[in-house]
Hints:
Elements: H1 8-16, H2 21-33, H3 35-54, H4 64-71, H5 79-169, E1 174-180, E2 188-194, E3 199-205, E4 214-222, E5 225-232, E6 240-245, E7 255-262, E8 273-278
Antiparallel strand pairs: 1-2, 1-8, 2-3, 3-6, 4-5, 4-7, 7-8
Amino acid sequence: xxxxxxxxxxxxxxxxxxxxxxxxxxxxxxxxxxxxxxxxxxxxxxxxxxxxxxxxxxxxxxxxxxxxxxxxxxxxxxxxxxxxxxxxxxxxxxxxxxxxxxxxxxxxxxxxxxxxxxxxxxxxxxxxxxxxxxxxxxxxxxxxxxxxxxxxxxxxxxxxxxxxxxxxxxxxxxxxxxxxxxxxxxxxxxxxxxxxxxxxxxxxxxxxxxxxxxxxxxxxxxxxxxxxxxxxxxxxxxxxxxxxxxxxxxxxxxxxxxxxxxxxxxxxxxxxxxxxxxxxxxxxxxxx
Length: 288
């Protein structure tokens, strides 16, 4: 045993039982206390077992025993001496031959195992790279989806801005003053009726923030009966823009109010009023 640890060759020889008994006992005691060498011996035993299962035993060809004896320089004694001497000598030579063949096979099989391990490591690296690329692609796709959603939102806002601008510039449009209640003293608003677009626009600024459980709701009244035109929420800056299509005959409506209602809107007006507008100016020029 060289140094403090076993070499792979010593581990292979120990695994196939080709070491001298004394050295084998020393190694057996050593691997009890040395985890690295114990692991090396276990690997060698696994390779030896695989080699034993993968290489079927075959009967030696005729004349092999005689050729081995000749190569070893043994003389052919008489029949009785040959019976006493050849048996142990041939067994020793055969054991050496088997050990050499086993070691050769183990070295070859160990190389194959190491190759498989390297290939497995390379494959794992490729899989990790592919997963990382897939994650990166997913992140890019998510960002693209978010950018597309933002683009659509900006496009919708642009269309809404254009429609509001056309309503404000049209000489046929009617604008009603909107008055804020005491709870929204700094808020300002306008209600615009566009007969060409058959649409009511409501624009307000400086609206106070509201919780997610509430929403603003626009109502119009006719003979004391309120009808909902829908709900809206301001943005983070307190700006709100809302539009709704109403039935023809709006000249019959008297007032408009904005109330604070539960999220999703209410079927009947019940919350506090935020804005109020007099729609009497709408009674003319509506283009019915």
